[in-house]
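User: For documentation purposes, I need each entry recorded in a consistent format: the amino acid sequence on its own, followed directly by the corresponding structure tokens. There are two entries in this batch. Please keep commentary to a minimum and don't merge the entries.

Assistant: Recorded as requested. Entry 1:
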Amino acid sequence: MIDKDYLLTKIKENNFLIIGRAGIDIYPDPPGTKTENVEKFISHLGGSSANIAVQLSKLGGNCKLLTRISNDSLGKLTINLLKKYKVDSSLVQHQDGEARLSLAVIESRLINHQSIIYRNNAADLFLNNDDIIKSKIENFSCIIFTGTCLSCEPSRSAIFLALDIAKKNNIPVIFDIDYRPYTWKSSKEASKIFLKASALSNIIVGNDDEFGILAMNYNKGLELAKSLTKQNDILIYKMGEKGSLTITKNKEIFKSIYKVKALKPTGAGDAFMGGFIGSILNNYSIEQSIEIGSAAAAIVVSKVGCAPAMPDMYTIQNFMKNNIT
């Protein structure tokens, strides 16, 4: 745990390293089309860390993404799209051999929605200690990473090296749990590793299911979340349609969600994270930043795509004026 004012000051220094996957999302077109009936697809930048970087960049964040991508045309497309969204890709490494970029086929529909994720031999999970050392963690003001990075080696050890360097240099760490069961050997393993990472993080963001995994009991996720605030500065416990609970050592803040007509169920968490941190960057209070993050999440689920749907502050403020929680 570090001083809260110091934490907010470091975020406002605006020099972010975001670690985790970038990929390509493919959407059946037009929206509402089932994948089995599709005749045409459209593609967009995807991957949780890339999406967070895009949202944070839209709010003025200076973001470098650290990941590995496949050394092929899809990898090159990912780099081009990161540049389009003004995310610094200079630390992105290419993985040779049979490694493949993270790929997702996502339907823009809610009823019987399907998202098909291709993570076989995923390039981003080849992130290694050398990548961390070369990235010069000590030069950044804030580190953001997602839990998917922890699912296997060598990426897991690389993340813990990054967290160790950050701690030694008093650099705040923000952890988006981002639990994806298909990337883990077991929920028990995920719980053990997530708890270890939580102990080295200053801000933790996750939903009720994810904290249930940490507790190894879905009925005790909130209890565990509250206990973690003894070692963490800010913890955000998201409850879907029931809103969110932000917990600090001395305070709990409940916020409702913005109700919108959703087009898809994906991208909300990434938008929330980028919106929350980006709002602190723009001198909003923690309470206001939660509301702005929630608004960004609501906007993204109402549009096709994740990265292209991430809103700027003007769009968010207009949305908040015309919608209530």
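Entry 2:
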Amino acid sequence: MTREELLDSLRRRRLDPAVLAAVAEVPREAFLPAGLRERAWDDKALPIAAGQTISQPSLVAHMVELLELRPTDWVLDVGTGSGYHAAMLARLAAHVFSIERHAELSAAAARALAATGAANVTLRVGDGTLGWPEEAPFDAVSVAAAGEAGVPGALLDQLADGGRLLAPVRAGDDERLILMRRNGRRISATEHGAVRFVPLVVGR
């Protein structure tokens, strides 16, 4: 698949124009190992280092759209991986703080983000389930790994009033994308389809 073919497919899904523009502008090939760059615009998850994957672009676009990002938003990205998701978020938000437990992935993501001009992303190596308390509260939180025990409490604690948190949540063999919203002390949740992500791991 080419970039234009992917964009045509996303247009038919009535993707938000701002998110569609981000897909067009972020060069996915820059976030892939050299041997896979010719497949960058295939709408498939592809392997990267440390046994992880880069999610399929249509899923990333769907997740970014669900977060309803604004140009002033402060975003927490849990699970940097290749850095592609952070780059997409960074096109639509003021700043992205991205955490990755694998140092080699974080280093590769830093190079790719710098090469593609994503200057409003700050990276950290560590346990993403703890969030980034010194930069909280966040207007949006994006989690790119599936937790067995729901969403970590620390991430919900760091969500601003009016904030949105999107995460895959696993229950047995079932895995669902859950969007949570904070309204004061109240947290509401909606489901947005079946997904499949790598497990959310506690600890560095």
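Summary note for entry 2:
The first helix runs from residue 3 to 12.
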